[in-house]
Design a protein that fits this description.
3 helices; mainly alpha; 2 strands; 53% helix; single chain
Length: 100
């Protein structure tokens, strides 16, 4: 029977056990917040990664919808953006009128 161990989790637990033993033996004079830091630093890093990936996913979906010649309205009276496949650029159509 083969047992697979997650090396990332093992590293986190190893640092926690190391910090805990050093704190309880009086070798280090850290606050308890830093003894438990392997857990909360990992949680913060994971949360930040998820948030950044969701933002990137949202931006990519906006760009994809523009490239498919769909329009995006950010506000009710704002101009619509279009994607020009031939020139590979975005543009806002407008009419030019001459004032007499």
């Amino acid at each position: 029977m083969e047992i697979k161990i997650n090396s990332r989790a093992t590293t986190i637990y190893t640092f926690f056990i190391l910090f805990l033993m050093l704190k309880l033996d009086g070798v280090i004079n850290w606050e308890w917040t830093w003894v438990f830091s392997p857990f909360w630093i990992t949680w913060i890093a994971s949360s930040a990664y998820i948030i950044i990936m969701e933002i990137v996913k949202g931006i990519r979906s906006i760009i994809t919808s523009i490239k498919r010649n769909q329009t995006i309205n950010t506000r009710h009276n704002s101009p619509k953006l279009y994607w020009d496949n031939e020139n590979k650029c975005m543009y806002v159509p407008f009419e030019v009128t001459e004032n007499e």
